[in-house]
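Progress against Task 2.4 (sequence-to-structure conversion) is shown through the following example record, which the project officer requested during the mid-term review.
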Amino acid sequence: MEDSIQSKLIYTNLQLDNASEMINKGQFEQSYKLCLYLKELLEKVHDLSDPSFSYAFFRLAGLFVDLGNRDSNLESSQIGLEIMESNSFEHCLTRDSYYYCLANAKGNLTQSDSNNYCKTDVSKIERFSEVGSLLLKATMIRRKNKDVLSPQVMVNMGINLYLQYRFSEALSLFDKVNCMGLDIPESWVNRSECLALLNQITEVFSIQQYKEVAQGYYHASVSSEFPYDWQNNFFNKAKHTEKEIEDYCLDLGIDIEDDKHLDEQEYQSLSEYRR
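Structure tokens generated for the chain above:
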């Protein structure tokens, strides 16, 4: 009987690795089906208090959350969150890791409802605050233990702040991560989208900021962390942004290649009100 349980655990962990690899390759539908199968398999294990099985179950929850984020799959995010909230996982996971993963799960569901930036939704702000609180708890525990704050945690905190329109705080975190020279494309993408949204809200087309938007998309387009389709998508976004800059400069008679005088040219082209 013991051998049978151990074999099932080994098989489950191998399949969890396969599901994770599928996500990295952009095979989201196949990974989701495999995760659903593994969920059914693990739920047949009556004693999830066993640390090995409990940790496998938590790994599965993390994959559901990752799929929810990568594939905009709300159902997958919800399944991951339900698993995380169904068990404290205290015997197999540190509290800071639990808070961090729970924040990711809740953040996915909140972000999916944030496409309309012009609509004010108090409940949405409250949900963002909850996510931010969980990330802060994880951060404080790590600082107390004198652990180095993970760059990925900084990125997630930046995304949470950006979606609350706290642009300067978000950009500061993204810049800190990007200066580390790591391959974390989410930081570049969200920095670009943060700058683009800032331009949209202020209704001022800043050429220099839009150049940085394109630069961020170019960084994401060569990241080994993204599947090819995503790389191609961000490359096209970068090219589209550059075309917008060219058209804008052409309309205003600004020389896009003259970086030395670009700020002054752009400034002079604005109305007195805009200045």
